[in-house]
Design a protein that fits this description.
8-stranded mixed beta sheet; alpha/beta
Length: about 240
């Protein structure tokens, strides 16, 4: 590994112990998710704690965040990253399987960057396999759990492969969760979007898809991507 940590403008994320490293998916989820009117936020599968830290930076000081992680080593690293951050008093990292998680109060915002390889060849590294494959947390399990934890006016945002987006939206409707926002992520001009972010709510409404182009050329970022991530990336003006 070239660098054991990733330095952002207001915090650093160490990822040398975690199976999944800091990546674009997590950054987009943390930057694009709406935290308007949020008081309680839940991050499912926090990994390094990246998304929880980004949402803490973007939300008001009275917002509390619960971050769940099934991998014990990941929990240790996430807790270390939170402790080093300016928001250690607002983020609680729990070592628990989401399927077993219960809460006394509902959450206003729920986010997840879930395991995303469906029916694909398993990785021989057990830790990395748990992080990348969805046998331990299926989309159905995730959506069912979210529906039970989300407040009536809350929102759930997920980042997933584009080729399963329609399936996930169809499954979400079984739990009265409906797409209110959708962002197709395009890495370079002419490329097909491989990732999409979707926000769900209990209120059925028209969803207008958006597109985000990341790079105009190699290391030449679009104005939209710069605007979305400039509060975090050191390289963004």
């Amino acid at each position: 590994m070239r660098y054991p940590y990733f330095q952002f403008k207001q915090f650093a994320v160490w990822h040398d112990k975690c199976a999944m490293k800091v990546g674009t998916d997590g950054v987009l989820l943390g930057a694009w998710t709406s935290v308007k009117n949020a008081q309680r936020i839940l991050d499912i599968g926090t990994g390094t704690g990246l998304v929880a830290l980004m949402l803490a930076q973007r939300s008001t000081p009275d917002v509390t965040i619960v971050a769940l992680e099934i991998d014990e080593i990941g929990v240790e690293q996430a807790r270390e990253n939170v402790e080093r951050s300016p928001w250690s008093e607002r983020i609680e990292v729990l070592h628990i399987d989401f399927n077993e998680f219960q809460a006394d109060d509902k959450f206003d915002v729920i986010v997840s960057n879930p395991p995303y390889f469906v029916d694909s060849l398993a990785c021989p590294d057990l830790q990395r396999n748990t992080a990348r494959h969805n046998e331990s947390l299926t989309y159905a399990d995730l959506l069912k759990g979210v529906a039970g934890l989300l407040s009536d006016t809350g929102s759930f945002t997920i980042v997933i492969p584009t080729d399963v987006a329609e399936l996930v939206k169809s499954m979400a409707a079984n739990y009265q969760l409906y797409a209110s926002r959708q962002l197709f992520v395009i890495t370079k001009p002419g490329a097909n979007p491989k990732r999409t972010l979707i926000t769900f709510a209990f209120q059925a409404q028209e969803c207008q898809p958006e597109e985000l182009l990341i790079e105009l050329a190699r290391h030449e970022y679009s104005e939209e991507y710069i605007a979305l991530t400039r509060d975090f990336y050191l390289k963004m003006p």
